[in-house]
Design brief:
It catalyses: L-arginyl-[protein] + NAD(+) = N(omega)-(ADP-D-ribosyl)-L-arginyl-[protein] + nicotinamide + H(+). By secondary structure, the protein is mainly alpha-helical. It folds into 2 domains: about 120 residues, no CATH class; about 30 residues, no CATH class. It is about 35% helix and about 5% strand. The protein has a two-stranded antiparallel sheet.
Length: about 170
Protein backbone atom coordinates (compact mmCIF):
# COMPACT_ATOMS: atom_id res chain seq x y z
CA UNK A 1 0.00 0.00 0.00
CA UNK A 2 1.28 3.45 -0.82
CA UNK A 3 2.11 5.44 2.27
CA UNK A 4 1.37 9.14 2.40
CA UNK A 5 4.33 11.04 3.79
CA UNK A 6 2.84 14.52 3.66
CA UNK A 7 2.69 15.75 7.29
CA UNK A 8 -0.10 18.24 6.47
CA UNK A 9 -2.32 15.42 5.22
CA UNK A 10 -1.59 13.34 8.30
CA UNK A 11 -2.17 16.29 10.63
CA UNK A 12 -5.53 17.05 8.99
CA UNK A 13 -6.85 13.75 10.34
CA UNK A 14 -6.38 15.01 13.89
CA UNK A 15 -7.38 18.63 13.39
CA UNK A 16 -10.51 17.96 11.33
CA UNK A 17 -12.84 20.13 13.44
CA UNK A 18 -14.15 22.64 10.92
CA UNK A 19 -17.92 22.62 10.86
CA UNK A 20 -18.21 20.48 13.99
CA UNK A 21 -21.84 20.96 15.12
CA UNK A 22 -21.02 21.71 18.75
CA UNK A 23 -23.93 22.87 20.85
CA UNK A 24 -26.75 21.78 18.55
CA UNK A 25 -28.34 18.52 17.56
CA UNK A 26 -28.72 17.55 13.95
CA UNK A 27 -31.66 15.60 12.58
CA UNK A 28 -30.94 11.85 12.92
CA UNK A 29 -29.86 9.97 9.81
CA UNK A 30 -32.78 7.88 8.60
CA UNK A 31 -33.11 5.48 5.70
CA UNK A 32 -29.67 3.88 5.42
CA UNK A 33 -30.77 0.98 7.64
CA UNK A 34 -33.30 -0.08 4.99
CA UNK A 35 -30.63 -0.41 2.30
CA UNK A 36 -29.34 -3.85 1.27
CA UNK A 37 -25.94 -5.02 2.50
CA UNK A 38 -23.78 -5.03 -0.63
CA UNK A 39 -20.13 -5.73 -1.49
CA UNK A 40 -17.92 -2.69 -1.02
CA UNK A 41 -17.45 -2.20 -4.78
CA UNK A 42 -21.24 -1.81 -5.14
CA UNK A 43 -21.72 0.22 -1.95
CA UNK A 44 -19.36 2.98 -3.12
CA UNK A 45 -20.81 3.41 -6.63
CA UNK A 46 -23.14 6.29 -5.62
CA UNK A 47 -20.21 8.24 -4.09
CA UNK A 48 -17.55 7.60 -6.76
CA UNK A 49 -18.02 11.07 -8.27
CA UNK A 50 -16.58 12.65 -5.10
CA UNK A 51 -13.18 10.97 -5.43
CA UNK A 52 -10.19 10.35 -7.68
CA UNK A 53 -9.40 6.65 -8.16
CA UNK A 54 -11.89 5.35 -5.59
CA UNK A 55 -11.87 1.93 -7.27
CA UNK A 56 -8.12 1.65 -6.62
CA UNK A 57 -8.56 2.55 -2.96
CA UNK A 58 -11.37 -0.01 -2.61
CA UNK A 59 -9.10 -2.67 -4.13
CA UNK A 60 -6.27 -1.77 -1.70
CA UNK A 61 -8.67 -1.85 1.25
CA UNK A 62 -9.95 -5.30 0.27
CA UNK A 63 -6.43 -6.62 -0.29
CA UNK A 64 -5.49 -5.44 3.20
CA UNK A 65 -8.54 -7.14 4.71
CA UNK A 66 -8.15 -10.70 3.44
CA UNK A 67 -8.49 -12.29 6.88
CA UNK A 68 -10.79 -10.08 8.97
CA UNK A 69 -11.36 -10.65 12.67
CA UNK A 70 -14.38 -10.18 14.94
CA UNK A 71 -16.76 -12.01 12.57
CA UNK A 72 -16.46 -9.26 9.99
CA UNK A 73 -16.76 -10.09 6.32
CA UNK A 74 -13.97 -8.94 4.02
CA UNK A 75 -16.24 -6.19 2.68
CA UNK A 76 -17.15 -4.97 6.17
CA UNK A 77 -13.52 -4.85 7.29
CA UNK A 78 -12.55 -3.14 4.03
CA UNK A 79 -15.30 -0.52 4.54
CA UNK A 80 -13.69 0.42 7.87
CA UNK A 81 -10.22 0.33 6.34
CA UNK A 82 -11.33 2.54 3.44
CA UNK A 83 -12.64 5.12 5.93
CA UNK A 84 -9.25 5.24 7.67
CA UNK A 85 -7.17 5.55 4.49
CA UNK A 86 -5.39 8.79 3.60
CA UNK A 87 -5.79 9.22 -0.16
CA UNK A 88 -2.74 10.54 -1.99
CA UNK A 89 -4.71 12.83 -4.31
CA UNK A 90 -7.85 14.76 -3.52
CA UNK A 91 -9.83 14.45 -0.33
CA UNK A 92 -9.95 11.18 1.56
CA UNK A 93 -13.21 9.37 2.14
CA UNK A 94 -13.29 10.22 5.86
CA UNK A 95 -12.96 13.95 5.06
CA UNK A 96 -15.89 14.02 2.65
CA UNK A 97 -18.07 11.74 4.79
CA UNK A 98 -17.36 13.70 7.99
CA UNK A 99 -18.21 16.99 6.26
CA UNK A 100 -21.44 15.48 4.91
CA UNK A 101 -22.36 14.08 8.33
CA UNK A 102 -21.86 17.54 9.89
CA UNK A 103 -24.12 19.30 7.38
CA UNK A 104 -27.56 20.40 8.56
CA UNK A 105 -29.05 19.44 5.19
CA UNK A 106 -29.32 15.65 5.51
CA UNK A 107 -30.23 15.15 1.83
CA UNK A 108 -26.53 14.99 0.96
CA UNK A 109 -26.25 11.76 2.92
CA UNK A 110 -28.56 9.80 0.63
CA UNK A 111 -25.76 9.00 -1.81
CA UNK A 112 -23.81 7.59 1.16
CA UNK A 113 -26.56 5.21 2.37
CA UNK A 114 -25.16 2.02 0.77
CA UNK A 115 -21.69 2.69 2.16
CA UNK A 116 -23.08 3.72 5.57
CA UNK A 117 -25.09 0.48 5.75
CA UNK A 118 -21.91 -1.58 5.22
CA UNK A 119 -19.70 0.64 7.41
CA UNK A 120 -22.11 0.85 10.35
CA UNK A 121 -22.92 -2.87 10.14
CA UNK A 122 -19.18 -3.52 10.47
CA UNK A 123 -18.76 -1.10 13.38
CA UNK A 124 -21.72 -2.67 15.18
CA UNK A 125 -20.01 -6.09 15.00
CA UNK A 126 -16.84 -4.87 16.69
CA UNK A 127 -16.53 -5.86 20.34
CA UNK A 128 -17.13 -3.10 22.84
CA UNK A 129 -14.17 -1.85 24.81
CA UNK A 130 -15.48 -0.73 28.20
CA UNK A 131 -13.54 2.00 29.96
CA UNK A 132 -11.37 2.61 26.92
CA UNK A 133 -9.91 6.06 26.48
CA UNK A 134 -9.96 7.38 22.94
CA UNK A 135 -7.73 10.39 22.41
CA UNK A 136 -8.23 13.00 19.76
CA UNK A 137 -5.63 15.70 19.73
CA UNK A 138 -6.35 19.15 18.43
CA UNK A 139 -3.29 21.33 18.80
CA UNK A 140 -3.65 24.88 20.15
CA UNK A 141 -7.45 24.75 20.27
CA UNK A 142 -9.38 24.54 23.54
CA UNK A 143 -12.85 23.20 22.80
CA UNK A 144 -13.77 22.31 26.39
CA UNK A 145 -15.97 25.40 26.86
CA UNK A 146 -18.08 24.42 23.84
CA UNK A 147 -19.24 21.20 25.50
CA UNK A 148 -21.69 20.91 28.36
CA UNK A 149 -20.36 19.04 31.38
CA UNK A 150 -21.94 15.98 33.02
CA UNK A 151 -24.17 15.14 30.05
CA UNK A 152 -24.49 11.69 28.49
CA UNK A 153 -25.22 11.08 24.86
CA UNK A 154 -26.36 8.07 22.86
CA UNK A 155 -25.30 6.84 19.45
CA UNK A 156 -27.26 4.02 17.89
CA UNK A 157 -28.15 1.62 20.72
CA UNK A 158 -25.25 2.20 23.09
CA UNK A 159 -24.45 4.78 25.71
CA UNK A 160 -21.00 6.16 26.39
CA UNK A 161 -19.46 8.73 28.68
CA UNK A 162 -16.89 11.04 27.16
CA UNK A 163 -14.24 12.42 29.49
CA UNK A 164 -11.68 15.12 28.82
CA UNK A 165 -8.03 14.53 29.70
CA UNK A 166 -8.64 16.39 32.96
CA UNK A 167 -11.36 13.91 33.93
CA UNK A 168 -14.33 16.19 33.21
CA UNK A 169 -17.36 14.41 31.79
CA UNK A 170 -18.12 15.99 28.41
CA UNK A 171 -21.11 15.73 26.12
Amino acid sequence: MAMVSNPKLTQSRYTDIQGEPIGKLLVPIKGYQNEPLLPLEEAVKPIQQFFNNLEEHVWIAKENCQTPKDDLTQDEAAAIHLYTMQFDSGESLYQVLNRTLRAENRDGLKSWFLYLKLFLTALHKLPSQPQTTVWRGVRNVDLSEKYKTAVRFALELWLKDVHAANGRLLA
